[in-house]
Amino acid sequence: MTDRTFTLGEARTLIPEVRAQMDAIVAARANLAELAFALRSGLPSHLGGTPEVKAYEARIDEALGWFTIQGIEVKGIAPVLVDFPAFHRGHSVRLCLLEGEQELGWYHRTELGFAGRRRLP
User: Fold this and answer.
1) Is the pTM of this model over 0.85?
2) DSSP 36-78
């Protein structure tokens, strides 16, 4: 992981690719959950079997690796929550994007976490 910090503009420029990676995680996560349930229950699945479980896990890991390379922190995958390290008004903050949000419109002070989330001015 890098010690990168982002300006709001830099983070917003990455949003189309961030959302694509988030969407890939969401799709793989859903397929993985459905397939794992079928396998545990002994039911056939149109999604495949054990090899496909490994493929869905690999797809999630690939997307997580992309975030790491970019210097973006992944805080969760169900729901997907990502943070861009940044500074705002002299404070260390995280610009945060939650699964389903279309734009980067929130931040929180680093030490407060998600509970301190506020709209960007």
Assistant:
1) yes
2) HHHHHHT---TT-SHHHHHHHHHHHHHHHHHHHHHTPEEEEET
